[in-house]
Specification:
5-stranded parallel sheet; 19% strand; two-stranded antiparallel ribbon; Rossmann fold; disordered N terminus; 7 strands; 5 helices; alpha/beta
Length: 142
């Protein structure tokens, strides 16, 4: 087991097609820790391509996943990634505009670590990221 309470930066993969949301996420994470390494993919297919091209050492600490994206949406991404022998245990948090109960249920069936609805208020958005960052820094993960 490894603790994330060390000052080391997190490897964060953001999968989202909204440029404004990506900028807000980057800003919020930089506010809580300047050293986090953030990589962004515009949809699930780009994320799959990215993950399959990297080594296990570069594995993201956490994935933030939007559901509504072109080509390969979030639920489809989860369906593929949870069957992948290397990436099936990724810590994935859904961060989306959808509060559809079917989307929430389906995401949890794919074993997401949490489901957040994107707020309209940027301060609440920032608070969500601070909460997530604190969780990741204090959790003991395998």
């Amino acid at each position: 087991m490894s603790s994330l309470s060390s000052p080391d930066a997190l490897n964060i993969l953001i999968i989202d097609d909204d440029d404004v949301d990506i900028m807000a996420l980057k800003r919020a994470f930089r506010h809580v820790n300047q050293n986090h390494r953030i990589h962004c993919c515009r949809d699930g297919q780009e994320a799959l391509d990215y993950l399959t091209s990297m080594t296990h050492i570069q594995k993201p600490t956490v994935v933030l996943l939007d559901l509504n994206m072109p080509r390969l949406g979030g639920l489809e991404f989860l369906s593929v990634i949870r069957r992948h022998p290397t990436w099936n245990s990724l810590y994935i948090f859904v961060l989306t505009t959808s509060d559809n109960p079917d989307d929430v249920l389906k995401a949890y069936e794919y074993n997401v670590a949490g489901y957040f609805k994107k707020p309209l208020d940027p301060r609440v958005f920032s608070q969500q990221i601070q909460l997530l960052d604190e969780f990741l820094k204090t959790a003991i993960l395998p």
